[in-house]
Specification:
Layout lengths: L22 H5 L24 E2 L2 E2 L2 H15 L7 E5 L6 H12 L5 E5 L10 H11 L1 E25 L7 E11 L4 E6 L1 H9 L6 E6 L5 E7 L13 E2 L7 E11 H9 L7 H5 L12 H16 L3 E5 L1 E5 L6 H12 L5 E6 L3 E3 L7 E3 L4 H4 L2 E5 L5 H15 L7 H11 L2 H6 L1 H10 L7 H10 L3 H7 L12
């Protein structure tokens, strides 16, 4: 039986790592992910790691190293290399990769994957890697278009007798009045544009723009002059556009090379880059040929040379990279050397291990030496009891849970003895138990009972005898 933990209505224990969630946020049922609390690397302006910042606790050396990598990425000086995060399970390797993504900003593509994802029956292993790399390379297209923009003051369809039959009437044209801060203009437009307006549900008082060369209509929002009126539906209010009704406007659109590859695999409509953007595949998995990728690169290069587009290299994050085999590692070397390579972040918890796909090659972290030589390696450290306590308190704040006296110390002890993940995993089941007992906070007895019901990984491993059975009892 699945049980969903209900957020507590009581005030969570305060901690300077993160403010407690408001009543509005805790009242709404939402899924809390393992790294919901990570908001960045938590650095000072000088690039030094704060002991406790942006949801990160500890790992000061690793965070400062990642901050240097972030600066290298921003200055476009990290191509052809990779960042390798190594450390024991539960020491924050995935959190560091997500923090790097936050530091780079939402406009930089971030493509996470796990090493085992490449073993697919649909496409080749190397194709999965190539696709991930292409999805992590963004293309920012800047296009200047002639548009008519303003608040709709008039929307009058003009009807005429239907020339195809003697019955009924048809729309011959539509009169649209547009108003800006500078003035007003009345437009006489084709009936197809009127149909597009009906689809967009445009009414008088909406702010719209119409592309002069294509006739495409876009609703921006409701004019803020109507902000005092109340409707049942929430509405986005925008100010009255400035300048003339007829103007030249720069439009910026973001797309990835992976999107362009997929759209070109089954092209629809025109062949220029704008038509390709509007015909992205919705379903199905098609293997993209190297010839097609070269053609896409040629078109993209042409747009970049003209100053129409800008390439935005993103980040590919491959977790559990030791799961890749020797063929994938060799292909990774080739991808890193390509002129349009994104930043690559790898993570592993292995020490010396055999390289998958071989019988006699043992290498550090299960990665061939030639690829390892391309990596900047960052080590994550084990957490102290004090740091585990801070992380547990932070997760309790995120999940809206209140901890009673001595609970934090008990969970920190469990985290030090077992693992930090185990200590965090005890939080929500213990809150369910305290709720069943009619309490609004977790007590030490709840943790003790959870500890009897569940085992941590180390205890479970010790309990398994050499013959595959259990030696009985909890150690």
């Amino acid at each position: 039986m699945k049980t969903t933990a209900m957020p507590s209505t009581s005030t969570p224990v305060a901690h300077n790592a993160m403010p407690p969630p408001s009543a509005a946020s805790t009242a709404r049922s939402s899924r809390v992910a393992p790294h919901s609390h990570i908001k960045g690397l938590g650095l000072t302006p000088e690039g030094l790691a704060l002991p406790d910042g942006s949801g990160f606790i500890g790992q000061t050396n690793a965070r400062e190293a990642c901050s240097v990598v972030v600066e290298l990425i921003k200055s476009r000086k990290f191509s052809g290399r990779a960042l390798l995060l190594v450390g024991a399970p539960g020491t924050g390797k995935t959190a560091l990769a997500l923090a790097v993504s936050h530091e780079l900003g939402v406009k930089v593509p971030f493509c996470p994957m796990v090493g085992s994802e490449v073993y697919s029956t649909e496409v080749k292993k190397t194709e999965v890697l190539a696709e991930a790399f292409r999805r992590a390379i963004g293309l920012r297209i800047k296009e200047t278009k002639e548009v008519y923009e303003g608040e709709v003051t008039e929307l009058t369809p003009a009807e005429a007798e239907n020339p195809l039959s003697g019955y009924g009437k048809t729309v011959s044209h539509v009169i649209v009045g547009l108003k800006t801060v500078k003035g007003t203009k009345q437009l006489r437009l084709d009936p197809t544009i009127y149909e597009a307006m009906l689809k967009e549900k445009i009414v008088v008082g909406d702010v719209i723009y119409i592309e002069a060369n294509t006739g495409a209509v876009k609703r921006v929002g409701r004019s803020d002059a109507y902000a005092s009126s109340y409707d049942l539906e929430s509405e986005t209010y925008v100010p009255l556009p400035k300048g003339d009704v007829h103007k030249r406007k720069e439009l910026v659109q973001d797309v990835t090379l992976g999107d362009l590859d997929a759209a070109n695999a089954r092209p629809q409509g025109g062949q220029d880059i704008m038509s390709v953007m509007g015909s992205l595949m919705k379903s199905g998995r098609t293997e993209v040929t190297e010839k097609l990728r070269k053609e896409v690169n040629k078109v993209v290069k042409g747009y970049v040379d003209q100053g129409v587009a800008e390439v935005v290299p993103g980040v590919v994050f491959i977790d559990e990279v030791h799961m890749l085999d020797i063929e994938c590692f060799t292909y990774l070397n080739a991808l890193l050397e390509s002129p349009m390579a994104p930043t690559v972040i790898l993570a592993t918890n292995r020490g010396n291990a055999a390289v998958r796909g071989t019988t006699d090659v043992v290498s550090p972290h299960g990665i061939p030496v030639d690829l390892l030589d391309r990596c900047l390696i960052v080590k994550t450290d084990a957490y102290s009891r004090e740091q585990i306590a801070k992380v547990v308190q932070l997760r309790a704040n995120v999940e809206g849970l209140k901890l009673g006296p001595g609970v934090l110390e008990r969970l920190a002890e469990e985290g030090e003895r077992g693992s930090m993940r185990y200590a965090i995993q005890l939080l929500t089941p213990a809150s369910i138990l305290s709720g069943l007992a009619g309490r609004n906070q977790i007590e030490v007895d709840d943790i003790g009972e959870m500890n009897e019901l569940f085992l941590d990984a180390k205890t479970s491993a010790r309990n398994i005898g050499s013959d595959g059975g259990f030696d009985g009892g909890r150690m």
